[in-house]
Design brief:
By secondary structure, the chain is of the alpha/beta class. It has nine helices and 14 strands. The chain has an eight-stranded mixed β-sheet, sandwiched between helices. Strands 2-12-9-8 form a four-stranded mixed β-sheet. Strands 10-11 form a two-stranded antiparallel sheet. The structure holds S-adenosyl-L-homocysteine (SAH) and N,N-dimethyl-L-histidine. N,N-dimethyl-L-histidine binds next to helix 8 and strand 12.
Length: 331
């Protein structure tokens, strides 16, 4: 499709299912080591993306509202500070909040040259396609070139022309382990030319009770989101795990400053995952770590970006100081 005049272009860099290549290798490695774990991208089939969208509207889940508040307050300032003609969004999902930024960057009255292209990147094919279609219709003068891809694998395959700003919102960076985060930030910086931009959303360390409530909501939506990983594993790799035989165990790890979201086997069970050639025995009480959600301190964000070759130019928080949005520039 054209990528302009109200129609998105969709480039697919992942195969339809998740049953091949690096994603499968990540699952094999995660399930074979202790504590057993699953890669976070595995949570986002269509149902996972739908459940995440529901999470963003839960009263306990403050990050989406806090980040949106920062964008509403500062999007014009961000647009004025940057000379980007292409906005790349990693892990874009529905790109709901991004519209605030797109409105500001797209504003034709600005002298610095308006945004010409939006490149949303996500593993969740249908959610991405729907968002791209909506956005192309909403901004007919802007090219929408969606990429169904993995931001840990495909940074080098994204469009390089034009002055780019990469947005990585929602604190999705918190779902990486520290060593993965370092590697990701290094690869991201390497993929940018000097002078190009990163806009990074990070959830901040706060009172443990509020954090636990945000990941253990009273309606049980987060629990369904985490359990859905087992459904995806069954469908894509033939795993015979019984979701009903697990309890949901979300906890705050104060040493690592992260939420740790696990499923605990309530009874012993033999597990076969034919798609990765694994067979193992889960004992009662054994846990599978499905996701971590690291919380940040502003000085830590600055240091990690700096180490990767990205200089922070500005950062903002919401009035409650719950969430930070950081603008950085490739040196
Ligand atoms: N940016 C949105 C969505 C956050 S949810 C927001 O701020 O609300 C995380 C998103 O990242 C999901 O849409 C998920 O499908 C996507 N995602 C997770 N791992 C990914 C990966 N490795 N590569 C590309 N997208 C990924
Ligand atoms: C996408 N990511 C930043 C969310 C988070 O808060 O870590 C995913 C999520 N998991 C449970 N609730 C929300």
């Amino acid at each position: 499709m054209s990528g302009g005049a109200g129609e998105p272009r969709v480039q697919v860099l992942l195969d339809e299912g998740r049953s091949a290549g690096a994603l499968v290798e990540q699952v094999r490695r995660g399930l074979a080591t202790h504590p057993r774990s699953l890669p976070a991208a595995w949570l986002y089939d269509d149902e996972g993306s739908r459940l995440f969208d529901e999470i963003t509207r839960l009263p306990e889940y403050y990050p989406t509202r806090a980040e949106r508040a920062i964008l509403v307050e500062h999007a014009q300032e961000i647009a004025a500070a940057c000379d980007a003609t292409t906005l790349v969004e990693l892990g874009s999902g529905t790109s709901e909040k991004t519209r605030v930024l797109l409105d500001a960057l797209h504003d034709q009255r600005r002298a610095a040259g308006a945004l010409r292209r939006f490149v949303p990147v996500d593993v969740s094919h249908e959610t991405l396609r729907r968002a791209a279609t909506d956005l192309a219709a909403r901004y007919p003068g802007m090219e929408v070139e969606a990429v169904v891809g993995d931001f840990t694998l495909h940074l080098g395959d994204l469009p390089r022309d034009g002055r780019r700003m990469v947005a990585f919102l929602g604190s999705t960076i918190g779902n990486f382990h520290p060593e993965e985060r370092r590697a990701f930030l290094g690869a991201l910086a390497d993929s940018l030319d000097p002078g190009e931009w990163l806009l990074l959303g990070t959830d901040l360390v706060k009172d443990a009770d509020r954090l636990v409530a945000a990941y253990d909501d009273t309606q049980g939506v987060t629990e369904r989101f985490i359990r859905n990983a087992l459904v995806v594993l069954g469908r894509e790799l033939g795993a015979d795990l019984d979701p009903g035989a697990f309890s949901y165990v979300p906890f705050w790890d104060p040493r690592e400053e992260r939420m740790d979201l696990r499923l605990r086997a309530e009874e012993p069970q033999p597990v076969r995952v034919p798609g990765v050639g694994l067979e193992f025995e889960l004992t009662t009480g054994e846990e599978i770590r499905v996701e971590i959600s690291t919380k940040f301190r502003p000085e830590g964000v600055r240091e990690e970006l700096d180490e990767a070759g990205l200089t922070v130019t500005q950062s903002w928080t919401d009035p409650a100081g719950d969430f930070a949005l950081t603008l950085a520039r490739r040196r």
